[in-house]
Amino acid sequence: ALELIDFKNALEQFQNLVEKMIIQKTEESSGLYTKDDDEIDYEKFYTTTRTLFGSAVKDQDIQAFFRKLMSNLDERPEWLEIFGCFRGENDGMFSPSKESMVLLVSEKQQITHSVVKRKDVIKGIVKVPLLHLTVTASQRGVLTVFSKQCRVYVIYVQMDTAWITGCDFLPNLKYVVAVTESTIILWDYKSKESKSDGFVIKPMKNCLLCVCTVTVADNLAKDTILMGDDKGYVYLFTITSDDFIMKQSKAEKESQFKVLDSESFDIPKRKLHDDWVGRIKYFSALKRFGSCSTDSTNSFVLDDIKRLEDYLPVKEFSVPEGVNAFTYCGKAKVIVTGG
């Protein structure tokens, strides 16, 4: 408690120091300032800051804070910056063995595992907060799961001519889902059997461009995903653990993934846009899904997933030149779109 009080006092003195510097600089610009013993130059700022916070601050951070403050008085830096909390990647590295006396700054950790190969790109990255996982999918078929303990699960999906266009995680079945231009890939990342790592559902008639999981914890034996294609259709696909057993194809038994016939699944779809579905997302807080397109007439749709089956009118918005990105902020209760 005493350390906390001392820090608050030190922080208050530091903020007073900053205010004095701003007043001094403002008066200098207007020609009203007269130099005296209270003048604050860099040496005085450095000495005072070092006295207040000790070794918790670094020389380069003090210098950067002073330079940033003097260059633009209207946009003063946050006090956190004096501890290097907004340090860029090239501004220096934290020493893993030394912790700040005031704040514990999370260390950057580099994973040396090569996620993608040459001439490959990441097409999807998803965080799974409840399981502390991060899922990535590359265009040419590398699916990767990173755990909190930095354990890495990787599989290379043997692609034909189609490329992966998006990925997500099925929280109930514990599968990674990825979509290509013509297939749906389901990968059991914890499986140790080389011949049964997952399933491929094909063929899909239109080119799939995006995928997301519907996060509804009403049934632990099934998961629901939404997909968008290049014809403006949005698909509603529910898969259960029984589907993996009942619908396995005998063909291609020796392949890496077992093949499931898409015709054996009931996959409702509805045309919501007149152009490509660029992005799709389910907002559990709203119990609604959103989909967007560069279509200027039906640019953004926000409604219940039941609309994909009952064909009642949907809430849609028109934006000139369409929408290619959107997100929801729970605090502000607003949806923001970018076109």
Short description:
It comes from Vidua chalybeata (Village indigobird). Helix content is 19%, strand content 31%.
Provide an overview of this structure.
- There is one protein chain.
- Mean pLDDT is 83; it is low at 88-100 and 250-254.
- The chain has 2 domains: 7-83, no CATH class; 122-338, YVTN repeat-like/Quinoprotein amine dehydrogenase (Methylamine Dehydrogenase, Chain H, 7 Propeller), CATH 2.130.10.
- Strands 5-6-7-8-12 form a 5-stranded mixed beta sheet, with no helix packed on it. A 4-stranded antiparallel beta sheet has the order 1-2-3-4, with no helix packed on it.
- It has helices at residues 2-30, 42-53, 59-71, 241-246, 307-310, and strands spanning 122-128, 133-138, 142-146, 152-156, 164-170, 175-180, 184-187, 198-202, 208-214, 222-229, 233-240, 258-261, 269-271, 277-283, 288-293, 300-303, 316-317, 325-329, 334-338.
- With 339 residues, it is α+β, with helices and mostly antiparallel strands.
- The longest helix is centred in the first third of the chain and has 29 residues, at 2-30.
- A hairpin with a 6-residue loop joins strand 15 and strand 16 (300-303).
- This is WDR64 protein.
- Keywords: Repeat.
